[in-house]
Amino acid sequence: MTGYAPSEAARRSGFSLDTLRYYEKIGLLADVERTTGGQRVFTDDDLGWLVLFRCLRDTGMPIAQMRRYASLAREGDHTVDERRELLLRHAEQVEEQMRLLQRQYDHLREKIRFYERLPGPQPEVGQPEVGQPEATLR
């Protein structure tokens, strides 16, 4: 078994030490091993969980759902269908968020193209040129 000090687990996972402690406290990380001196030692399995938690957090899954998923996984194979459903629902929400971001990005790019087509010196974004009605810059 490979063991990682908390600082190494934090570096590898991208989470802060405080977040690692919090995830252990709320039960996302279960049974983190400790040295005889009481220092936490993270295993490859713990890091695997952290990679999953990074994905779920970065895609906006609430902590309560992350806890539910982790709890189900620890209960065993009879929860596979429920875990899959939880992830499918989350994936659908991520897809909707991606569609929204794409629409907003397209709008932003169109606004940039508008400013690039203006003649002469480019006004600062959000600042109308002298004598130009503000509404035409929206």
Could you describe the 3D structure shown?
- With 138 residues, the protein is mainly alpha-helical.
- It has five helices and two strands; from the N terminus they run ααββααα.
- It has helices spanning 6-13, 17-25, 44-58, 63-75, 80-117; strands at 33-34, 40-41.
- It has a two-stranded antiparallel ribbon with strand order 1-2.
- α4 runs antiparallel to α5 (80-117).
- The longest helix is centred in the last third of the chain and has 38 residues, at 80-117.
- The model has no long low-confidence stretch (mean pLDDT 90).
**What share of residues is helical?**
55-70%
Give Rg in angstroms: 24 Å
**Low-confidence regions:** none
Strand arrangement within the widest β-sheet reads 1-2
Number of E strands:
2
Secondary structure tally, helices:
5
Mean pLDDT, nearest integer?
Answer: 90
Beta-sheet strand percentage? under 5%
Write the layout of secondary structure elements.
Blueprint: H1 6-13, H2 17-25, E1 33-34, E2 40-41, H3 44-58, H4 63-75, H5 80-117
Antiparallel strand pairs: 1-2
Summary keywords:
138 residues, mainly alpha, two-stranded antiparallel sheet, 5 helices, elongated
Task: Please outline what is shown here.
With 138 residues, the protein is mostly helical. The protein contains 5 helices and 2 strands.
